[in-house]
User: Which sequence fits this backbone?
């Protein structure tokens, strides 16, 4: 069975600083990996996804993530954070045999200081 | 193109009652998945429907059920409500059941059980 761990529950970052959110997954085969963002009172919005190929994936809003099979990680990064990036971020894993079922990590809440 | 819509947005019920939540997917999308989001358990997969058939089911009791209509709209039902059923219920739609397809989430229905 798949599982996802996001070790950081909260992260506070200054506006303009870089951001890195950690995600570790457990899955025997090649995983399908996703990062979603949830703003207060909103649903989830897909930032980026990885299935195969280039291990550095570019997403929307200036985010990127790197798949590292040896570390079972899929960390999300942004070089310069904007106040509007304050939200909760979720890493998720899917599998070929599981259809659209996603297993989510616990989420990381990002606070942006002015 | 209109996004995923969920109705109602907010709901208050009492223990023992039942509730029905509705999800209208993006036009042309035939897969609808449901998730429960709580502070304690995070985001958990409930079930997925495609072409009116349940394709996948999460680890929830039989009190949780769903269905999908020929126009791809989906409903989920929770019978004999318990306090622990208080949660944000999210639905997501995609064109197919392939995990590579982007899933688009609705804003959710917030259910409070008193």
Assistant:
């Amino acid at each position: 069975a798949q599982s996802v761990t996001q070790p950081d529950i909260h992260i506070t970052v200054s506006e303009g600083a870089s951001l890195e959110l950690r995600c570790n997954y457990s899955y025997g085969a090649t995983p399908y990996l996703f990062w979603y963002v949830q703003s207060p009172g909103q649903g989830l919005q897909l930032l980026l996804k990885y299935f195969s190929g280039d291990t550095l994936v570019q997403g929307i809003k200036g985010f990127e993530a790197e798949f590292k099979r040896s570390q079972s990680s899929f960390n999300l990064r942004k070089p310069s954070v904007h106040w509007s990036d304050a939200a909760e971020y979720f890493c998720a894993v899917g599998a070929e045999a599981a259809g659209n079922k996603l297993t989510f990590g616990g989420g990381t809440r990002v606070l942006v200081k002015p | 193109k209109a996004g995923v819509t969920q109705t109602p947005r907010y709901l208050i019920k009492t223990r023992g009652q039942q509730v029905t939540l509705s999800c209208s997917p993006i036009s042309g999308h035939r897969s609808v998945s449901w998730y429960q989001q709580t502070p304690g358990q995070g985001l958990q997969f409930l079930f997925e429907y495609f072409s009116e058939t349940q394709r996948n089911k999460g680890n929830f009791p039989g009190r949780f059920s769903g269905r999908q209509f020929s126009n791809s709209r989906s409903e989920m039902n929770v019978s004999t409500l318990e306090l622990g059923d208080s949660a944000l219920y999210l639905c997501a739609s995609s064109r197919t059941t392939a995990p590579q397809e982007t899933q688009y989430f609705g804003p959710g229905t917030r259910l409070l059980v008193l």
